Amino acid sequence: MHGGRVGARGRGSAPPPADGGGKDAKREPSKVYVDASLRGIDNMRELGDVVGLLLALRDGLAGSGDLIATAVGAIETHVSGERLRESTRLQVVGSGGLELVFNVMLRHGTEASVQQVACLLLVKLARKAADVQAKIGELKGIQLLVHSMLQHKTVEAVQAAAIEALLNLTPDPQNRCIIGQFFGIEVTVAAMKTFPESVAVQSHGCAFLANVGYENAENKASIVKAGGLKATLRAMKRHRKVTIVHLWGALALRNLALDHEANKATIGALGGIKALIGAMLTFKDDCSVQEQSCAALRNIAVGNEENERQVSELRGVEVVLRAMRRFRGVRAIHENAVELLRAMALLDDWHATQVMSAGGIEAVLSSMIEYRAVFALQVAAIDMVFEVAHTGETAKERITAAGGVETISSTLKAHILQEAFVEKGVAALRVIRSG
């Protein structure tokens, strides 16, 4: 007789376990276990015990989709809304919560709902908290976020939450480097291409691109190579009436054009100037959109003659002047607008006359009075007035009628120690007074 002993149950081998495995096989939790766990989750939900819920996800809930969903929902209750309670943030971070979040993401890598809520929790923990942002970078949280995006490419909610989490890590310069090294830029641009109708993906994506390239030349190059400029402009075009997309889109274009001649030319060629002027027309009463768009136009156009001419052709001068009149008390709008108008006037007499005809003299003189102490604005303003005055008698008369002589004289007294500035101002007065 060959083989093992035949027991009382009869001959042959016993049937395999129902789950198809041996002692290490994963078994579906019993109803008693599930019920007890649900009661525990409810208690933790009521107590605000985010750490307890994370521990439950890490250690005890791998066998039940219902339990995972319930625990995730309980955590989501605490991270919903604009801000996380400071007491909750301190509790989570101080109790090793970041490490728990990352363990949960690793244990439940295929669970989209777990990935989404983990990303949302990281968003709230990192927001305006430099120490948490740095720690997430040190614990390789950025790599986990990128991995989550790669694993759930078709899940909009995961993409939006992960991009927002990456965005909240970008204030840290080291994190910006890590994001660039581990393809955070590429996966974000890919998500923007995959979910063109998602306001969350598009707005978070534009904001992320604005920040991740800040003071980082390698990331700026990666953004362009990955198609980030095109993705930003596509978002602005598709979501013409969504304020937040245009606000972050303008900031992205502003930062990517700063001190980067190639990006200036690319943005102009791709229709960026048209998009920004369109945003200023659509959101004419939104101060933030006007401010960021003015700054973007300045960075894109000034120093690039083709872009400067494009601003003129698209009636950008009139749009910028409208912003100056509408928001008289917003310094940033006036600083950027005056710099842009100076560049337009320096192009040639025709463009200088266009600036004057649109009301540029009156608007700039008003800015000089309002922002007397802002030296850079005063320099740009006098340069512009000087150029316009050279176009002829009509310009001189208009400058004089608007109080230009008195305004320039007062400004020169306020900055009397600035020798080169005073010389230019005196020269401007001489031209204005010449018959």
Describe this structure in words.
The chain has 3 domains: 39-162; 183-314, Leucine-rich Repeat Variant; 329-435, Leucine-rich Repeat Variant (Alpha Horseshoe), CATH 1.25.10.10. Helix content is 74%, strand content 0%. The protein contains 27 helices and no strands. It has helices at residues 31-47, 50-59, 65-79, 86-94, 97-107, 112-126, 130-138, 141-151, 156-167, 173-181, 184-194, 199-212, 217-226, 228-238, 243-257, 261-269, 272-282, 287-301, 305-313, 316-326, 331-347, 349-357, 360-370, 375-389, 393-401, 404-414, 419-433. α3 packs parallel to α6, α12 (199-212) packs antiparallel against α14 (228-238) and α20 (316-326) packs antiparallel against α21. The longest helix is centred in the N-terminal third of the chain and has 17 residues, at 31-47. Residues 1-36 have low confidence and may be disordered.
List the helices and strands and how they pair.
Blueprint: H1 31-47, H2 50-59, H3 65-79, H4 86-94, H5 97-107, H6 112-126, H7 130-138, H8 141-151, H9 156-167, H10 173-181, H11 184-194, H12 199-212, H13 217-226, H14 228-238, H15 243-257, H16 261-269, H17 272-282, H18 287-301, H19 305-313, H20 316-326, H21 331-347, H22 349-357, H23 360-370, H24 375-389, H25 393-401, H26 404-414, H27 419-433
Helix pairs in contact: 1-3, 2-3, 2-5, 3-6, 5-6, 6-9, 8-9, 8-11, 9-12, 11-12, 11-13, 12-14, 12-15, 14-15, 15-18, 17-18, 18-21, 19-21, 20-21, 21-22, 21-24, 23-24, 23-26, 24-27, 26-27
